[in-house]
Amino acid sequence: MKTTLAFSAALAAAFLLRADYAPEKWNLEARDKFAAQRFGIFIHWGIYANYAQGEWYQHQIGMDSETYGRIKDGFFPSKFDAKEWVRIFKDAGAKYVTITSRHHDGFSLWPTKVDDGFNIAETPFKRDILGELSKACDEAGLQLNFYYSQMDWRRKDYPAGSASRKVLGNQKGDYASYKKFMISQIGELIDNYHPGNIWFDGEWDHARCEKGVWKRDLDWELDDIYDFIHSKKTLVASNNHQPIRAKEDIQLFERDLPGEGTSFSKDQPLVHDRPVEQCDVIQKNVWGYRINERSFRTPEEVCAMICRCAAKDSNLLMNIGPDGSGRLPARAVEVLSEVGKWMRENGEAIYATRGCGLVKNADGSETGKTKKGDVVYEITIPKGCKGYPTVKTSS
Ligand code: JFZ
After folding, report:
1. Mutational pocket test of ligand 1: of 48, 153, 264, the residue with most ligand atoms within 8 Å of the beta carbon
2. Cα gap 334→302, rounded to integer Å
3. Atom of ligand 1 lying closest to residue 204 CA
4. How far apart are CA 290 and CA 142, in angstroms?
5. Distance from the CA of 341 to the CA of which of 5, 119, 138, 222 falls in 20 to 30 A?
6. CATH superfamily of 2-353
């Protein structure tokens, strides 16, 4: 049994890596630059913030897009201040920001020219949120990246899959048309705001893993989309929970330490020939703003997460969901500020290091190791994150 499993894993790996594709020099450099950043802030924001029930609200209550979308006419986040957000992120020690340019509800946070008006320009707010954020990030020296949902709960040309069927019914769609639309939007995003990566999510609407075998009911023709993005010197990542493909530049793990396979990543072998990023939530159970979600992680916990990721040779992308007025939840801001203090003291053990492993000790504490040149950093995370991680240096 063991031999068979190992054998099929080797076959699968050979299949995934066989493609006659070799990343170009700019690409390898961009991957290195990304990996060195180690800590980023994820932002889930859209008109769903006004419902204040998380980003899956439309789906949860099975609302049709026409009804759901009416809330766009009241989207006026008067407190949105890109400079202030970026100041808070930078002060926390983050080196990049990844924001939902368009989530599953299909609403675009920039004045896209290629949709039917379901975007920020068609709200009373009108301002180009991604444009303002991109400018603020540039000024502060942070890299901006874009989450982009492949699944869509609104468009008529999107072919309904296992998750979207609840709102779309058995809509057949027209994938050729939908693909053209995605490529046009991604072209706009890259040309207008030069993101470091496009962070896909939603491919899993058309894939599932049964006893180790992947079943897919739509050919997304990802090679075409990935080649297009690469032609514009931008990296590709996908939160598809699947084994990584040759043309994906960053391996993503959702709410799971890379390689542990404890929950979402159970069917995702860690490859580690490319940068790795774990995304997770600061408000423990939701990505978009939810008014009654108060279970915030403590600063000690967030620092421990950064350390665990670094020891596992991975970035951490920590999510925050701003509210409908454009404010970051107050508790999240407090937590980030404390994380920033720790990062200013200890960032040397995190940024631009390589991870050398993480172990759990008998007393419940954890020890992680990172390395930069000849210097080894030994990081101790107290049991239950009761205090901040401590760092010892040796060479
Ligand atoms: C996805 C989104 O649905 C969620 O809203 C958030 O944006 C998160 C970062 O990504 O979550 C997933 C991703 C993959 C699966 C389910 C939810 N999956 O493979 O079943």
Report:
1. 264
2. 12
3. 19
4. 27
5. 138
6. Glycosidases (3.20.20.80)
CA distance 150 to 273: 25
Q: Phi and psi dihedrals of 77, rounded to 5?
A: -75, 80
Rounded distance from Cα 382 to ligand 1 centre (Å): 30
98-127 pLDDT, tens per residue? 999 999 999 999 999 999 899 999 999 999
Residue 191, classed as helix, strand or coil, is helix
> What are the backbone dihedrals phi and psi of residue 315, each rounded to the nearest 5 degrees, phi first?
-85, 160
Task: Tell me which of 320 and 8 has the higher pLDDT.
Answer: 320
Buried b / exposed e across 195-231, counting CB within 10 Å, b at 16+? bbbbbbbbbbbbbbeeeeeeeeebebebeebbebbbe
204 CB within 6 A, ligand 1? yes
* Continuous segment of H or E residues that includes residue 379: strand 375-381
Nearest-angstrom CA–CA distance, 316 and 332: 16
Per-residue pLDDT of 284-309, as tens digits, reads 889 999 999 989 999 999 999 999 99
Q: Are 43 and 98 in contact (CB under 8 A)?
A: yes
**Distance (Å, rounded) from C-alpha 170 to C-alpha 334?**
45
Tens of pLDDT, residue by residue over 64-95, are 999 999 999 999 999 999 999 999 999 999 99
